[in-house]
Amino acid sequence: MFPLVVDDRDKPFGWGWNHDSPNFDLSDLSVPEALTFALVEQHLDKSFPPATLDALQLWFKSARQALREMDTGAQTNIWLCKVRTIAPMQALLVPQVDAQCQREVYDALMRDRQLKLSYKKRDVKTVLVYESVHPLAVIQRRPLIYLVCLFAGYDDVRMLAMHRMQAAEMQYLPSRKKTGF
After folding, report:
1. Range of the domain at 9
2. Buried-most residue among 93, 108, 141, 154 (CB within 10 A)?
3. In angstroms, how far apart are the furthest CA atoms of the chain?
4. How far, in Å, CA of 118 to CA of 129, rounded?
5. 180 found inside a domain
6. Both 75 and 103 in a single domain?
C-alpha cells in the first residue's frame, strides 16, 4: 500500500520512501492544482533552478496522474491541448546546455557567489577561462538562456549564452552587485 524501500545491508535496517513514487498526500490534487502544475511543467521548466525542478518532480508526476484519471473529454485535459507558448521570433534549433554547468550557474546565482567559467565564444576555436564572474540574473529568450553578469575589474554588464559554457565552478567568494541593476 505504501511505496517503502528497505536498505538491509546493515542492522538496524534503513527504511525510506521510494523517490519515484507519487506524493503521499491524504487529499488528491484538485483540478486547478493539477492544471497549474501541468502548465508550470510545460512552460516554466527553464525558469527554475535545477534543484527546485528536482524537488517539483513528484508534484508534476502527481498532476499528470490526476489528469490521466480524469475523463479524457474533461475540460481540463482539453485545455492543456489548446494552450501553447510560442516565442515571438523565428523558430531556432535548441542548443544543448550542459546540465551540470547550468546547475552550478543557477546555484551560484541563488547564493550570490562568484563563478569560474570556461566559455567558448562564437567563431573562436579556443575555450576562454574567466576566473571571476559575478552573476546578476538569468534571462530566458526561448530557446536561449543567458547569464547576465559582471567580470572582475569591470563595471559594465555582460551577457553570456548558457549553451556556450563548457564548465562552471561556484567559488566561495561573494559576488558583486551592480548599483541600480
Report:
1. 4-82
2. 108
3. 60
4. 4
5. no
6. no
Q: What confidence score (pLDDT) does residue 164 get?
A: 94
Structural domain total, the chain: 2
Question: Which has the higher per-residue pLDDT, 50 or 147?
Answer: 147
Name which of 1, 36, 37 is nearest 21 in CA terms: 1
Chain segment 159-177, per-residue pLDDT in tens: 999 999 999 999 999 999 8
Q: Please report, as a single letter, which amino acid is at residue 56.
A: L
* Residue 48 located in a structural domain: yes
* pLDDT interval class at 91 (50, 70, 90): low
Task: State in Å, rounded, how far the first CA of the chain is from the last one.
Answer: 52
Q: What is the DSSP letter of 70?
A: S
Are 76 and 31 a contacting pair, CB within 8 Å? yes
Between CA 107 and CA 163 the distance in angstroms is: 17
3-class SS of residue 42: helix
- CA 121 vs. chain centroid, Å, equals 24
Cell of 141: 529568450
